[in-house]
Amino acid sequence: MKKTRILIIEDNDDIRESTAEILMLGNYEVFQAENGKYGVELATKYLPDVILCDIMMPELDGYGVLHLWVRKSETSAIPFVFLTAKTERIDIRKGMEMGADDYLTKPFDDVELLNAIETRLKKRDLQKAYIVSRLIN
Q: What is the value of pTM for the model shown?
């Protein structure tokens, strides 16, 4: 069975690597990008099942990544989760209004991260099943 692919877009090496380690221990296939521009390239190449993305990054910030991501029909349905230190309500609302599926604030723990991913994957699977059932009926 194919492993679930997760892309981490995070400019902080320690956070990116520790997040990747948690996910690999959770039996996910993990891709890593150190900035938004490279993250968009990897996302387009590998079409991950979930994207975890920081907001404040060089070259292209997380809002820019999300803006590009939701505009492509082949990628717009892929769950997108912000991982960020931006904790102000206005920042959270901005991300959600742009189309983010979830918003985890740093620091987050292993269980919180894994639960957020599983929740996004379950919702995606339910949406797919609903669409298929509507096409059949």
A: 0.90
